[in-house]
């Protein structure tokens, strides 16, 4: 297998974006006589003129040796071993070339469905590249030589805006169904198309996502929705009918909530772009809201019993698919529980407006407007109330029909 080797000058890369820590690791490995490259998202995003989230390194140096060379490192991973090299400002993931040969001692172990159970055999770059998911993720970059090594036409795919699996898409999806979510994520992030033949396979095999640990699916959902391309992720997840796999408890009402989701995700993406904090709990509160909304009839005449019941039921059922950490489930519940308080102002309104979760609940309330035009008056009232001084607040409360003393 002879790769194409392209000089990085052809891409006019902004090499200032490469992490200094990453460069120092590569240079040290080179000095010790090893090969070392930036691989994956770091190369892909540099070529795409994006600012890479992080830089992964791959080398022919084995984990035990990496551990010895770098004092600030530790070996992690169960399914496959890799090394985390720690710096004050970042952790650089450094992996060893992996092999795909089955007759190697300690090589991959697959179950009856072809799923990888364990793989821990080291290999060459040629072997390593075949194990990567997509052509666009299979480029190796040596920043010192200034060379990009391309075995499968990843550079061409970047130019044509394609996400193509390496090898047979069905086999690769059965090996690791999470690749379905990864394909969708890269298509959403980069505005690329997933190779045509993969569509039918994803539609047929998407249920295998249920066999993946809820912790891993949770992480993938966050990447889909909290990385600045939530709107696109939502659209593609729906196109491939994967949204209903991830959120089966809202799938029967999903269509009616399209406007709600699109408005909410546009706002989420806007916040990401201006560098505002995004709370995982908030995104799950949005994603699961349709069911609470429907069951409780909150917009018209709320049924509190159904409201509380649906809140605990939906969060509990969703846990089986995406294990949301406890601190976020309590955030989700608070944001929802606060919603009726915007529609019923009264004695406790003042105190509510100082609540720890008020701001998040209010942002959520604003987003509800897209499908509940009847909230217009309440939204205007709250928008004024929120920033008013104490006297004005009392006035506003009194204007709502009840009398409040000044103290
Ligand atoms: P991101 O910008 O999200 O970091 P990335 O492509 O770097 O994107 P990582 O999850 O950091 O994604 O993985 C680094 C590289 O490891 C990928 O580019 C890909 O080559 C390989 N890889 C990761 N996950 C898988 C997988 N499930 N199957 C095959 N290869 C994978
Ligand atoms: Mg990465």
UniProtKB/TrEMBL annotation:
<dbReference type="InterPro" id="IPR025866">
    <property type="entry name" value="PolyA_pol_arg_C_dom"/>
</dbReference>
<dbReference type="GO" id="GO:0003723">
    <property type="term" value="F:RNA binding"/>
</dbReference>
<keyword id="KW-0804">Transcription</keyword>
<feature type="domain" description="Polymerase A arginine-rich C-terminal">
    <location>
        <begin position="306"/>
        <end position="402"/>
    </location>
</feature>
<keyword id="KW-0547">Nucleotide-binding</keyword>
<dbReference type="InterPro" id="IPR002646">
    <property type="entry name" value="PolA_pol_head_dom"/>
</dbReference>
<feature type="active site">
    <location>
        <position position="54"/>
    </location>
</feature>
<dbReference type="GO" id="GO:0006397">
    <property type="term" value="P:mRNA processing"/>
</dbReference>
<feature type="active site">
    <location>
        <position position="56"/>
    </location>
</feature>
<keyword id="KW-0548">Nucleotidyltransferase</keyword>
<dbReference type="InterPro" id="IPR043519">
    <property type="entry name" value="NT_sf"/>
</dbReference>
<keyword id="KW-0067">ATP-binding</keyword>
<feature type="domain" description="Poly A polymerase head">
    <location>
        <begin position="36"/>
        <end position="163"/>
    </location>
</feature>
<dbReference type="Pfam" id="PF12627">
    <property type="entry name" value="PolyA_pol_RNAbd"/>
</dbReference>
<dbReference type="InterPro" id="IPR032828">
    <property type="entry name" value="PolyA_RNA-bd"/>
</dbReference>
<dbReference type="GO" id="GO:1990817">
    <property type="term" value="F:poly(A) RNA polymerase activity"/>
</dbReference>
<dbReference type="GO" id="GO:0005524">
    <property type="term" value="F:ATP binding"/>
</dbReference>
<dbReference type="GO" id="GO:0043633">
    <property type="term" value="P:polyadenylation-dependent RNA catabolic process"/>
</dbReference>
<dbReference type="Pfam" id="PF12626">
    <property type="entry name" value="PolyA_pol_arg_C"/>
</dbReference>
<comment type="function">
    <text>Adds poly(A) tail to the 3' end of many RNAs, which usually targets these RNAs for decay. Plays a significant role in the global control of gene expression, through influencing the rate of transcript degradation, and in the general RNA quality control.</text>
</comment>
<dbReference type="InterPro" id="IPR010206">
    <property type="entry name" value="PolA_pol_I"/>
</dbReference>
<keyword id="KW-0694">RNA-binding</keyword>
<feature type="active site">
    <location>
        <position position="133"/>
    </location>
</feature>
<keyword id="KW-0507">mRNA processing</keyword>
<feature type="domain" description="tRNA nucleotidyltransferase/poly(A) polymerase RNA and SrmB- binding">
    <location>
        <begin position="191"/>
        <end position="251"/>
    </location>
</feature>
<comment type="similarity">
    <text>Belongs to the tRNA nucleotidyltransferase/poly(A) polymerase family.</text>
</comment>
<keyword id="KW-0808">Transferase</keyword>
<dbReference type="Pfam" id="PF01743">
    <property type="entry name" value="PolyA_pol"/>
</dbReference>
<dbReference type="InterPro" id="IPR052191">
    <property type="entry name" value="tRNA_ntf/polyA_polymerase_I"/>
</dbReference>
<protein>
    <recommendedName>
        <fullName>Poly(A) polymerase I</fullName>
        <ecNumber>2.7.7.19</ecNumber>
    </recommendedName>
</protein>
């Amino acid at each position: 297998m002879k790769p194409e080797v392209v000089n990085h000058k052809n891409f006019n890369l902004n090499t200032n974006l490469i992490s200094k820590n990453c460069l120092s690791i590569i240079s040290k490995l080179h000095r010790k006589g090893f090969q070392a490259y930036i691989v994956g998202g770091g190369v892909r995003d540099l070529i795409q003129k994006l600012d890479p989230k992080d830089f992964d390194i791959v080398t022919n140096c084995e984990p035990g040796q990496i551990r010895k060379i770098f004092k600030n490192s530790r070996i992690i991973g169960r399914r496959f071993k890799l090394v985390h090299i720690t710096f004050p400002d970042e952790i650089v993931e450094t992996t060893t070339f992996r092999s795909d040969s089955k007759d190697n001692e300690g090589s991959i172990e697959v179950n009856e469905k072809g799923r990888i159970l364990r793989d821990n055999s080291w290999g060459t770059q040629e072997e390593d590249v075949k194990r990567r998911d997509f052509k666009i993720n299979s480029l190796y970059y040596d920043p010192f030589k200034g060379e990009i090594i391309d075995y499968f036409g990843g550079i061409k795919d970047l130019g044509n805006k394609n996400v193509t699996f390496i090898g047979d898409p069905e086999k690769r999806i059965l090996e690791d169904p999470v690749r379905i979510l990864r394909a969708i994520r890269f298509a959403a992030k980069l505005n690329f198309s997933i190779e045509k033949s993969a569509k039918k396979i994803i539609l047929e095999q998407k249920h295998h996502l249920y066999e993946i640990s809820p912790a891993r699916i949770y992480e993938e959902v966050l990447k889909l929705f909290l990385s600045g391309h939530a709107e696109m992720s939502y659209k593609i997840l729906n196109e491939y009918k994967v949204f209903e796999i991830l959120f089966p408890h809202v799938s029967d009402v999903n269509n009616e909530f399209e406007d709600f989701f699109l408005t909410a995700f546009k706002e989420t993406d806007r916040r990401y772009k201006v560098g505002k904090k995004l709370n995982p709990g908030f995104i799950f509160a949005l994603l699961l809201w349709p069911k609470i909304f429907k069951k409780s009839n909150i917009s018209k005449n709320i049924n509190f019993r159904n409201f509380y019941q649906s809140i605990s039921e939906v969060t509990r059922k969703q846990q089986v698919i995406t294990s949301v950490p406890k601190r976020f489930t309590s955030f989700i519940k608070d944001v929802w529980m606060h919603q009726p308080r915007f529609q019923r102002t009264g004695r406790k309104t003042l105190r509510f407006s100082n609540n720890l979760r008020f701001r998040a609940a209010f942002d959520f309330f604003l987003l509800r407007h897209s499908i509940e035009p009847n909230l217009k008056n309440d939204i205007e009232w709250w928008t004024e109330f929120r920033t008013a001084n104490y006297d004005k607040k009392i006035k506003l409360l009194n204007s709502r029909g009840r009398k409040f003393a000044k103290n």
